[in-house]
Design brief:
about 0% strand; mainly alpha
Length: about 55
């Protein structure tokens, strides 16, 4: 069974930005996974910061 993850355009843009920042080669599965995790955790931290600010 194959799993397919459909990402929003915003998530795709965030992952591209992370990959560019860290010079990741997203053609390699381990780099793609790392970029995905970094992007997700960064967005969670940003959302939490905004929530704590009251915005």
């Amino acid at each position: 069974m194959a799993y397919v993850i459909i990402k929003s355009p915003e998530r795709q843009a965030l992952e591209r930005r992370v990959a560019d920042t860290f010079y990741a080669r997203t053609g390699r599965p381990e780099d793609a996974d790392a970029v995905s995790v970094i992007a997700a955790r960064s967005q969670e931290a940003y959302d939490e910061m905004k929530r704590m600010e009251g915005n």
